Amino acid sequence: MKFEDLLLEIGGFGRFQILILAILCLPRINLPMHFLLHNFLAATPSHHCAIPHQEAFVNLTMEEVLLINIPQKPDGTFSSCEMFSQPQFHLLLNSSLQPENKSIIQHCQHGWVYDHSQFTSTISTQWDLVCEQRGLNQATATFFFIGVTMGAMVFGYLSDRFGRKTMLQLSLVCSVVFGMLSAASVSYTMLAITRTLTGVALSGLSLIVLPLGMEWVDVQHRTFTGILSSIFWSVGNMLLALAAYLVREWHWLLVAVTGPCLLSIVCLWWVPESARWLIAKGKVKQAHRHLLRCARMNGRKDFAEDMPLTMYAQRMVLGREYKNTGGNYSYISLFRTPVLRKISLCSGVVWFGVAFSYYGMSMNLTGFGLSIYLSQFVFGIIEIPAKMVIYVLVNRVGRRQSQAWTLILTGLCIGANIVIPKSFSSLRSVVAVMGKGFSEAAFTTVFLYTSELYPTILRQNGMGYTSFMARLGGALAPLVFLLDEVWRSLPEVTYCGVAVCSGAVAFLLPETLNVRLPEGIEDIE
């Protein structure tokens, strides 16, 4: 008998599954609070060069002191990275007569002065990661996603080898340890290393939570499970805005977003190992114990009484889908057979495009006329209706069409904001929010879609590989912002092009709507 049939006998979506999903939603909430933390951790407030011997200008206002010491840009704002080598007192008479002699303009020589009205401290203000050091500031997010990328490969393999629950517990413990070490960082190097290791640890949560919940529910509730898990990501998105608004000091903000992992560690003891995985690995006794617990909690006492271990084991052994599934598989197995190879290549491109465009939009919270906290909250709240709509679409028009068009529309929204003038801030905000909604819909779909594309024996390997591609996209996304020094709109053009192209690739994937989860490679081929 197939595992799907067995789930129907014991209750494919009862109290047992609801309890599991409720507990697994806790670490899901915590994920975006770290993944998007860069928006606040590395925020760069308004700043200008520190002016030496400022006591010599006691008779001047602060505005006048800046006027004679800091060059002005064409738009009238003061330069953030340059200063005059000598005070230009003639500018007090006519500020429009900016010196044409560029030799008297130099880079900041005495550090910077920051506006602390919005942030008490960030890593930018802590270690002066501005101007020539701006790249290091953006690299902080890249280091984190490099860690997530490495973790995707490690936890994908280990969770298929040693079990979903064991690796999830390890991931949570390591997240707490490295998260707290990040908060205690005394140098940029220490922060970069600990944030990278935090990314490795959190990758386990990102990779395991959804498949573990998905493998306990029946076919009819698979989509609902994926959407529900995704909604709690959006809740975490909004809670990050609240946490950052309340905690303006970067050390304590890291503590605030890491602390909830402790609650998840405690609650995870009530979550059972995946029965699918146990059976695939030949651990029938353990699977039987969890299935009996599921049957009792769901009120299927007839199953618990009529299904002794020997009969259950016999029925499982007889099933074609479990034959030889206890063998060891690796990432190479994803590319050995033709159909699976095509799925792996195309899904890798789609995941890269989804993450690249999503984080490109999520880490650009300025230029829309809203505060950074409100932008973060709005970008989070728009994801919930986007998920509701995609819940209907994936069941009506299918996974493939939904995946392709949400990505393409994300790219078109990013492209539209390139041509809309900055003065139309309200229109730009609306288009950006729409694009964020499409981007989140694409992310929601890709998690559900990928978990249905791969067979049970390779599902975590498949999720590990695609997560690697996604994190590669996430790691490159913040660095693309540095391209604005080449051409101001080049970052947006890059995000737009990648989103549209990866959306087109999604049309090459097979449809999985109302199809049983494949158990072995032969089910795929």
UniProtKB/TrEMBL annotation:
Alphabetized PROSITE patterns for the sequence: MFS
Q: Which InterPro entries match?
A: MFS_dom (IPR020846), MFS_sugar_transport-like (IPR005828), MFS_trans_sf (IPR036259)
Task: Write down the membrane topology.
Answer: Multi-pass membrane protein
Using the UniProt record, give the first listed, main subcellular location.
membrane
Which Pfam families does this chain map to? Sugar_tr
Which residues belong to any copy of the Major facilitator superfamily (MFS) profile domain? 87-514
GO CC entries: apical plasma membrane; basolateral plasma membrane
Known catalytic reactions: 3',5'-cyclic AMP(in) = 3',5'-cyclic AMP(out); orotate(out) + L-glutamate(in) = orotate(in) + L-glutamate(out); 2'-deoxyguanosine(in) = 2'-deoxyguanosine(out); glutarate(in) = glutarate(out)
Q: What keywords tag this UniProt record?
A: Cell membrane, Ion transport, Membrane, Transmembrane, Transmembrane helix, Transport
SUPFAM superfamilies linked = MFS general substrate transporter
One annotated GO biological process: monoatomic ion transport
Would you tell me the protein name for this molecule? Solute carrier family 22 member 7
Query: Which organism was this protein described from?
Result: Nicator chloris
UniProt lists the gene as: Slc22a7
